């Protein structure tokens, strides 16, 4: 008799989980443990660096090896009597939030491996030595470290497939659909963690370009738009090159620095967005002009094109 489709997918979930636990074992029990042992001798790399590279991999490994894999295996052995995995995956889903920390840390971890491999030949040698072992299958540490980042999307795909192949009357339908919803939320949580990390990184770069002025550096700010602009001087009917940074709460009116050491811009004026008014000006001499008036002062600005002006006004 042909195995039902949903059972094949459940078996695939079990097989990939076994392979995944082996990979986590390699990361936690081989790479992490051996690098930590060497770090304690003080010859290769500080212990703190090793901890930063591997983030919370030990918790992830223990959860999968001691809880999820055994539960899944038990369930598949009993499949003919009780064909369901939805409830087990529901138990798994909340713990997958642990991945947020690992995923958020991933880019930094890879940078640390590169930097310390250059700084410390013994560190590089130890990693190369482990990578030569059969268990590594000719793949680098960085490659193995990518596995946990890719695992949650994999659960989502397998479970979607499983739900799709379930017969309408299956006793597992309700649980499996709920489990899929939970995994979907966790995947979103993990993606949100990556997006938040990227937002903060980009924000930090902007602050560096502005010279890290204390009253401007705030992690909750959101950069909405930036770009060059012409400031119109009504006094002598001329324009001068300026640069704007628009955040959710303030507009920074800046001057590009001639000597680019350190900061790229000097903040000339900071205007609160609250109470600010913006409108287009119909000026025949200076096309694409708009007026920004706030509590602090009013600026007459000229964009390079009509589209650019509209983008700023919007």
Automatic annotation (TrEMBL):
SUPFAM superfamilies xrefs: DBL homology domain (DH-domain), PH domain-like
Q: Where is the DH domain?
A: 5-193
Pfam families per UniProt: RhoGEF, SOS1_NGEF_PH
* Gene3D superfamilies assigned: Dbl homology (DH) domain (1.20.900.10), Pleckstrin-homology domain (PH domain)/Phosphotyrosine-binding domain (PTB) (2.30.29.30)
Spell out the molecular function terms from Gene Ontology: guanyl-nucleotide exchange factor activity; zinc ion binding
Q: What domain of life is recorded for the organism?
A: Eukaryota
Which key words tag this protein in UniProt?
A: Cytoplasm, Cytoskeleton, Metal-binding, Phosphoprotein, Repeat, Zinc, Zinc-finger
Q: Name one GO cellular component term.
A: cytoplasm
State its location(s): Cytoplasm, Cytoskeleton
Record GO biological process? cytoskeleton organization; filopodium assembly
SMART domains reported for this sequence: PH, RhoGEF
**Can you give the residue ranges of the PH domain?**
222-314
Q: Can you say what this protein is called?
A: FGD2 protein
| Name of the gene this protein is made from | Fgd2_0
């Amino acid at each position: 008799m042909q195995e039902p489709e949903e059972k094949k997918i459940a078996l695939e979930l079990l097989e990939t989980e076994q392979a995944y636990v082996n990979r986590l074992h390699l990361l936690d029990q081989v790479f992490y443990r051996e690098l930590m042992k060497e770090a304690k001798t003080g010859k290769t790399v500080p212990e703190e660096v090793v901890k930063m590279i591997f983030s919370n991999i030990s918790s992830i490994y223990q959860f999968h090896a001691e809880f999820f894999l055994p539960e899944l295996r038990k369930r598949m052995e009993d499949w003919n009597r009780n064909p369901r995995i939805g409830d087990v995956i529901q138990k798994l889903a909340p713990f997958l939030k642990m991945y947020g920390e690992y995923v958020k840390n991933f880019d930094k971890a890879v940078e640390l491996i590169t930097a310390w491999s250059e700084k410390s030949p013994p560190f590089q040698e130890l990693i190369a030595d482990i990578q030569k072992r059969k268990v590594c299958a000719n793949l680098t540490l960085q490659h193995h470290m990518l596995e946990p980042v890719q695992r949650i999307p994999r659960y989502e795909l397998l479970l979607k497939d499983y739900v799709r192949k379930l017969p309408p009357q299956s006793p597992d339908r309700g649980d499996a659909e709920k489990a899929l919803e939970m995994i979907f939320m966790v995947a979103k949580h993990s993606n949100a963690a990556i997006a938040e990390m990227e937002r903060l990184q980009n924000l930090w770069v902007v602050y560096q370009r502005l010279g890290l002025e204390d009253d401007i550096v705030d992690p909750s700010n959101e950069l909405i738009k930036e770009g060059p602009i012409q400031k119109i001087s009504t006094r002598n009917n001329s324009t001068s090159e300026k640069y704007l940074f628009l955040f959710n709460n303030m507009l920074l009116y800046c001057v590009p620095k001639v000597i680019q050491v350190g900061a790229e811009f000097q903040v000339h004026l900071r205007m609160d967005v609250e109470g600010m008014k913006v409108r287009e000006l119909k000026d025949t001499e200076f096309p694409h002009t708009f007026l920004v008036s706030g509590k602090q002062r009013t600026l007459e600005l000229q964009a390079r094109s009509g589209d650019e002006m509209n983008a700023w006004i919007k």
